[in-house]
Amino acid sequence: MKKYSTYKTAFLVLLASLSACKKLDLAPTNKFTDSNFWTTTEKADAVLNTAYSQMFSNDYFFYNEGASDNAYNGRGDNQGAASLAAGTYDPSLGRIKQEWGFHYSGIKTCNIFLENVDRVTAMDATLKARMKAEARFIRAFHYFMLETWWGDVPLFDKDISIDQSKSIARTPKAQVVDFVLKELDAAATDLPVNTAYKDADRGRITKGAAIALKARVLLYESRWQDVATTCEKLMNDNSNGTYSLFPSYEGLFLPQNEYNSEVIFDLEFVPDVRTYSNFFDMAPLAVGARLNALAPTQELVDSYLMENGKKITDAGSGYDENNPYVNRDPRLTNTVVYNGYKWKKPDNNVQVIYTKPGDDPGATKPDEYAPGKVSSPTAYYTRKYYDPASAVNFQSALNLILIRYADVLLMYAEAKNELGQLDAGVWDKTIKALRTRAGFTDAPALNFAAGSQTDLREIVRNERRVELAMEGLRVFDIRRWHTAETVLNGWAHGAKYGPASVDNGYIRANLRTFDKGKNYLWPIPRDERAVDPNLTQNPGW
Predict the structure, then answer these.
(1) C-alpha angle with apex 424: 423 to 428, nearest 5 degrees?
(2) How is residue 488 annotated by DSSP?
(3) What's the DSSP call for residue 192?
(4) Which phi-psi region, left, alpha or beta, contains residue 372 (left: φ > 0; alpha: ψ -120 to 50)?
(5) Distance CA 28, CA 25 (A)
(6) What pLDDT digit, counting tens, does each position of 319-330 carry?
(7) Is the pLDDT of residue 7 over 70?
(8) SS3 191
(9) 282-317 pLDDT, tens digit each
(10) pLDDT of residue 32
(11) What's the pTM value of the predicted model, to 2 decimals?
């Protein structure tokens, strides 16, 4: 049973007792008093469950890809992704205001929990320590996201008053990062390993999750030796949790394999209680989607290697521009839907998806590319995270994996290369293991070929891109690598169904700009600065 079967109770109790603020200047309204609410373990758990529910959103998970070079948000501006990718935003963008409030709401809930849970005197001491550790992890995650997007942000570990919220200043990013790392270390001490939880508690934060998130924080700070050492705690020491690559890349994202050996931490959903329907606007129209609002780009498709391990531009790769999807990295078919794709339906029948103009023999041609249609503006759709068990309008309760073991291996490979230590042994444990699981069999694709640090950096970064494609992480990678100024300047493309005279026939889907002088940090939301004059603005905004 998924842990979040208590979501409804959590929200009802919490709404009756407090209202987690959406902005720094809003305070909770209490009907319960502190003395009569914090009386049972169940009530404390309800507040903690609410903190879990506020941690991340399915919309951020999917549409963050549209803010990167992996995808184009071509219908509307869902979660501000189109504006962020195109560089056409300012401090009033709704997504920027929303996400600032989203994370501070979650922090407020965590602070309220941590300040009051000791009032529950009858709670088992070990359980209380674990629940505190869960709340500290969630709070650390929020601060990690805040400093990643904005740099310096207000940092506080106690619930603040309205007056305090109107005058609080930004804390230097380095101090926020230090707080996050210390909180994760402290949380790991009191968190169980993944195998220690009973089925009813699957999905709760574990010691391994705290260690893996710490590695990600360190990765974003380019602290390479610390990244490697932290990853080794999960790769070489089962006392911190037992993890391994799930045997099937396709199966990793199917509902029957939730909580598999690769999952370190996921965003939990429950049928009829907490679901999402993003695929209603991401799947091909021929299988029941409404329209396309998030389309993979040609740039993402081109990043997948050939089965022989060569890039499509390499001599001897065997790439055929007129038959571009054959003999490619198997992960392409598990992630992106292209012309001629054989979409497996829940009843095991196959629906062929036609996106190339003139290829569809049917009458309606729902997915055929044409400018201005509701079909994909790049002629590509998404397959990864499609839930065959989804209800009407693709309503799904499939968990979304926020951290998985493959990411640990990729972080380790990147760190070892930056340290000048990526050798055959590291390769075999990381890149080779991932490619073998993906389905590569050709020796040149699997075996380590020594090269310069620069060459290996390109290989590792591309492996990270294709392994984690459409999982919401690419936008953070191109920002920390400082490659966004390159990959988010110019046209995002679609398949080769456009005018032959323009970009060699590849669809021009979206013109983008990225100002390296200011776009690596989001602006502080305009409305927040109007309330709090002590909130300084980021450079260039």
Answers:
(1) 120
(2) T
(3) P
(4) left
(5) 10
(6) 999 999 999 999
(7) no
(8) coil
(9) 999 999 999 999 999 999 999 999 999 999 999 999
(10) 60
(11) 0.94
